[in-house]
Amino acid sequence: xxxxxxxxxxxxxxxxxxxxxxxxxxxxxxxxxxxxxxxxxxxxxxxxxxxxxxxxxxxxxxxxxxxxxxxxxxxxxxxxxxxxxxxxxxxxxxxxxxxxxxxxxxxxxxxxxxxxxxxxxxxxxxxxxxxxxxxxxxxxxxxxxxxxxxxxxxxxxxxxxxxxxxxxxxxxxxxxxxxxxxxxxxxxxxxxxxxxxxxxxxxxxxxxxxxxxxxxxxxxxxxxxxxxxxxxxxxxxxxxxxxxxxxxxxxxxxxxxxxxxxxxxxxxxxxxxxxxxxxxxxxxxxxxxx
Length: 290
What we know:
Blueprint: E1 26-27, E2 37-38, E3 51-53, E4 58-61, H1 73-76, E5 82-85, H2 89-94, E6 104-107, H3 122-127, H4 129-136, H5 140-154, H6 156-170, E7 177-180, H7 187-199, H8 203-211, H9 214-230, H10 235-242, H11 246-260, H12 263-270, H13 275-285, E8 286-288
Parallel strand pairs: 4-7, 5-6, 5-7
Antiparallel strand pairs: 1-2, 2-4, 3-8
Helix pairs in contact: 5-6, 5-11, 6-13, 7-8, 9-10, 11-12
């Protein structure tokens, strides 16, 4: 299978959303890795006028278990120094990453003991259409994924994993850095949201960036979805499993606000990040717009 400055709280309501042409990162072509995106160019309205994420330093993707170092110049040409793997021990054991030459591996298991969480078993959810209908039909699939997103915000293990991701991204010796899970949409998507909000993106931009992966994941999962529906599977279940829906990220952001008291408190109390780390991240990754 395949933020705002500290103390400047991300507003919960009446945000000025980005225009229809907002940059949501750059999809990159790779032969053996799905859903590769450069976060560079995403606007950071809370970081100052005409500020964006610096290009070429922070990348996201699906898993690297099928990466071909000899033939996939789309990845080898990125100069990646660090790969952060957000998958479970079980996932890594079944499909270990193939690393770009010279890159180090950092493991940051988001789900931990919740290894049966929906984001960790996308393939098995599509393997049996009848079982999927019983488990996920009647709108339950959206509830299952929304609950998983809330856990990515609230569980101590997930907080530790995302702290590891941010600390690695803030370390100049580890960049360019690529982070991923299995499909590069759920665990990776929340990681990207955390980094974007830390750097100064508004929530509307972070939402747009989160949803922008859907064309890539649709393409990656197309054979599985076709097989699922051909055997009588509900296409609405398949879409909710293989794509990211607006309600998923909304559930995570709601948990940030209601359970942590806002993004700043999530960063300091949940993730346990100090000001020095956040400042290093911003210094390196906030750049003037071209």
